Amino acid sequence: MRFPRRTAVVTNPTVQALYGEAVRQSLAAAGFSVTLVIVPDGEEYKNLATLETIYDTLIRQNFDRTSGLIALGGGVIGDLTGFAAATFLRGIPFAQVPTTLLSQVDSSVGGKTGVNHPLGKNLIGAFYQPLHVHIDVQTLRTLPPREFAAGLAEVVKYGVIRDRDFFAWLERSKEGLRRLEEAELVEAVKRSCQIKANIVEIDERENSLRAILNFGHTFGHAVETLAGYGRFRHGEAVAIGMVVAATAASELGLCRAEEAAAIRDLLVAFDLPVTPPDFPLAAYLQAMGRDKKVREGALRLVLNCGIGDCTLRTIADPEQLFTSVLARLPSL
Fold it and tell me: Which has the least CB within 10 A, 154, 256, 307, 317?
């Protein structure tokens, strides 16, 4: 399918200042008619109010079903733009141009789109595949260190849940990645995207296998919700959630304590937080109770089986398990 010649590029002020004009000129030179839509920067703006501003522009500019959207930015921009594309006029084409490591290895691949609700992350959304994803690792050189580190959390996740050799490669290559060496960046992005694509190809709509991609996310999303969107980057919250999940797996006999420690140590080496913020257990349990993997009121967790494999397990007594897990971890 040919991408529509009339398109809106959705971005934020930070990315617009870096790449917006170059992208606009490139599209115009290729014969595209470009409308720019700038939305505020930050996870706290991934909501229905911001989504409505995208709709407003499209409607006022008389966009129709022969038009398209391009997401230029990180995961927030990609999720917002994808959901706008999925729902505007019941669906128009869109493309992803991810500029952060997190969006390059995770949110731009697989077709999940959506926005947050004050009571939970990504509770409103749709599965909607982009026509094209364009990744250039050179954009990672303009990321703040904290933002780059947040993306590495998802990279580590792929090794833990699916590829022990990749996890070992990350351990060997961590200094090159921290120095933003191109060969290491390309390899990390390529292998991460391939692992995710292989999973999504089998289970696009998360009816079974795809749920393993949420390793660390159940507790991580609870951290984001309780702390208020914006205090923790998504990848930072996932890093905390992975340490919690690995500790739970160790508690349940699914992995050795040394393997849980190796996961924690690699995350620490990438400058990621691994300590849960000090919220009451009841608050964590309530937030996790709204997780999308909950079925008939039962909490299900993705837990690693050592390093390189994982399982989805229903937790009969979440309070008992997390009381034990959090007691083994220091709090912020």
Answer: 317
Q: For residue 230, give both structure tokens.
A: 């914006």
Check residue 121 and give its pLDDT: 86
Pick the CATH number of 152-327 from 1.10.287.1260, 3.40.50.150, 3.40.50.970, 1.20.1090.10: 1.20.1090.10
Name residue 8's beta-bridge partners.
35, 69
Could you list the active site residues? 90, 112, 154, 196, 206, 210, 214, 217, 221, 234
Beta carbons of 154 and 161 less than 8 angstroms apart = no
The three-class DSSP label of residue 228 is: coil
Cα angle value 157/223/97 (rounded, 5°):
55
Segment 181-230, tens digit of pLDDT? 999 999 999 999 999 999 999 999 988 899 999 999 999 999 999 999 88
